[in-house]
Amino acid sequence: MATSCIRVFADAAHIEHSKQRLAAAAPGLEAVAAVLALAGNDVRLKMLYLLLDQQQLCVCDLADVLQMNVSAISQHLRKLKDGGVVQARKVGQTVFYTLTPALRPVIEPLLGSVSISLTPAAV
Amino acid sequence: MATSCIRVFADAAHIEHSKQRLAAAAPGLEAVAAVLALAGNDVRLKMLYLLLDQQQLCVCDLADVLQMNVSAISQHLRKLKDGGVVQARKVGQTVFYTLTPALRPVIEPLLGSVSISLTPAAV
DNA sequence: TTCTTATTTAAGCAAACGCTTAAATAAGAA
DNA sequence: TTCTTATTTAAGCGTTTGCTTAAATAAGAA
């Protein structure tokens, strides 16, 4: 795809530099976008919020607290698990979910903004 | 919706406590989820990445760097603007976009994880 | 074994998403 | 004014999302 604009001050060098930087960062950015997409859902973010201080919760607990269909909760948990955000541990017939330790430092800051509250503009 | 499970160790008090905590945090969580949903898209996260160190970029620049249709870029910018993540400033016929200053401290940590790179599990 | 419970999975469906194309605005240049 | 450029908007369309219902697993209890 050629340049989309005709700008006199196109600053081709600058554009090229940005392209390079972006190309280098792209894989990391895409990985981050994947977990942000998982967290960028009301229900799932609430799950992460609950898991962050409860260590572990079973499907049932989450369904109760979120007042949602067990099946819907299970499907959200599957996505979180597939994304590596959450881990499952089966005890008897109940399955306990935990935040993946490695991702905990990534998730925590996402929820930090909750306490400091967002600016009205973003709400 | 009644409790969805029959658990003996239901720990009703615990569940109730979680519900309370969640109810208190819900508005904040939903606001955060909204911006995470915006950032949780490959193209938009790349835009934010570029805007984070370029101060300002026009639609055209972004289209060039991301090698995408100007219209598609414009539509992404509209979402970011509606979400308060980005601001527009018109100069002549070109529109420059900037990260909303207030949201900058929220966006920056999202991209911080790029440099420290994610664990293989999350990728 | 049969019965009950906890969870997952499959199917269906309406809504949201993200892109493309084409038309509509807006603003400078001739 | 007309022409060109930068951006936005509208319409269309295929894909994805998130829920519901119902069926399928899995595991303990009787």
Automatic annotation (TrEMBL), chains A, B:
Signal peptide, first to last residue: none
Residue ranges of every copy of the HTH arsR-type domain listed in the record: 24-118
Keywords: DNA-binding, Transcription, Transcription regulation
Annotated SUPFAM superfamilies: Winged helix' DNA-binding domain
Record has Repeat as a keyword: no
Example of a GO MF term: DNA-binding transcription factor activity
NCBIfam families: HTH_metalloreg
Protein name per Swiss-Prot or TrEMBL: Helix-turn-helix transcriptional regulator
